[in-house]
Each structure stands twice: as C-alpha cells, then as structure tokens.
Design goal:
Number of strands: 2
Number of helices: 4
Number of domains: 1
Radius of gyration: 24 Å
Helix content: 40-55%
InterPro entries: Tail_sheath_C, Tail_sheath_structural
Family: Belongs to the myoviridae tail sheath protein family.
Pfam family, one: Phage_sheath_1C
Largest sheet: 2 strands, antiparallel
Structural class: alpha+beta
Order of helices and strands: HHEHEH
Protein name: Phage tail protein
Shape: elongated
Strand content: 5-15%
C-alpha cells in the first residue's frame, strides 16, 4: 500500500509539473526539458531517501513520425520504491569460543 501511495505522489507531481509544456512547440528542446525535469525530480526523491532511484526516457517505439506530427510525445519513466520494514527477525547465538579465546591470550 505504501508503494502504491509513493507511485501516486510521483505520478501526480510529474503530471502537474508537465502542465507548462502543454501547447509548446514539440521539438528536441522541449523533450530534453521534460526529461531533465523528471530526472531531476527522481534525483531529488533519491537524495531525500524516498526512493532507490528512477529515470525518464523517450519511448522510441511510440514516438513515431505520425505521433510526433500529431503533437503526441511519449515519455516513459521508472522508479524503485522503498518498501516499509514489515518483519524484523533478530537471532541470538551463544559463542563459547569467545571464552576460550580470552583465556588463551
């Protein structure tokens, strides 16, 4: 559940940050700005300890000449969520060799 919440926050934040790019001319500069913005956000989340990392890239399969001409840009991104610790097992061992080592020194 916390992983889903993390994904929701990331998705909402990225979508909101992309609003200024809508209706701008679709060219390499805009694509690079979008990628840079998403990748900077992922680095920030990693530095805060919220995720293990993440990155964004252009989807070469979907960014066809036809789609780009229609003004459709496809950017994929991934991230590595941090799961909460749900089970911690502590194990105790008796080490009798330590007594022997202490006496033989």
């Amino acid at each position: 559940e916390s992983v889903r919440r993390t994904a929701d926050v990331i998705e909402d934040s990225i979508q909101e940050a992309m609003l200024p790019y809508v209706d701008r001319p679709l060219d390499r500069d805009v694509a690079d700005d979008i990628l840079g913005s998403i990748n900077a956000y992922m680095r920030q989340l990693k530095n805060l300890g919220a995720i293990h990392g993440g990155s964004a890239w252009l989807n070469d399969e979907l960014n066809t000449a036809e789609n780009l001409a229609a003004g459709w840009l496809y950017i994929d991104y991934d991230f590595g969520p941090k799961s909460p610790l749900e089970r911690l097992t502590l194990r105790t061992m008796i080490n009798n060799k330590l007594a022997q080592e202490e006496l033989t020194v």
